[in-house]
Amino acid sequence: MVRYTILYIFAVLCLASSCNYQNEEDLFPSTSCDTEAMSYVSDITPILDNYSCLSCHSSVSNQSGVAIEEYDDLKKWIDNGILLKSMQHDGALAMPQNQAKMNACDIDKIAAWITDGAPNN
Q1: How far is the C-alpha of 34 from the C-alpha of 41, rounded, in Å?
Q2: Could you report the per-residue pLDDT of 27-74, keeping only the tens digit for each?
Q3: 59: exposed, middle or buried (C-beta count within 10 Å: 0-12, 13-18, 19+)?
Q4: Which of 22, 39, 57, 62 is deepest in the core (most CB within 10 A)?
């Protein structure tokens, strides 16, 4: 009888300790990067602001003769491929200069926007 009681208590403890009330999103956060329908105004400009790109490349500071403050100025650097290469640290001066590489998702968003024709939207 004592043996069955001990087995019963052990089984109950095993079952109780195996319960987990965490949800899947807490355990496995999403690593996806939504690159669908990127917008110059809503998506790309905020990324450039977050990395302080305009503090060096505005019409006022214009470092190295590169201004990307206005869409037409940015488009020049898109068309010659330098913008993406510099952000990817691949074949052009790495940007942001003297800082860590941009977040991969942000680079992917800019690349997707460029692939979609870099619309001024």
Answers
A1: 16
A2: 666 678 999 999 999 999 999 999 999 889 988 887 888 999 999 999
A3: exposed
A4: 57
What does the DSSP 8-state code read for residue 100? P
> At residue 67, what is the residue type?
A
Burial label for 9, CB within 10 Å (0-12, 13-18, 19+), is: exposed
**Using CA atoms, how far apart are residues 108 and 116, in angstroms rounded to an integer?**
12
Q: What is the pTM of this model?
A: 0.72
Residue 47 identity? I
**109, 115, 117, 119 alpha-carbon torsion, rounded to 10°:** -10
Task: Report the C-alpha gap between 110 and 56 in whole angstroms.
Answer: 19
Dist CA 18 CA 47 (whole Å): 43
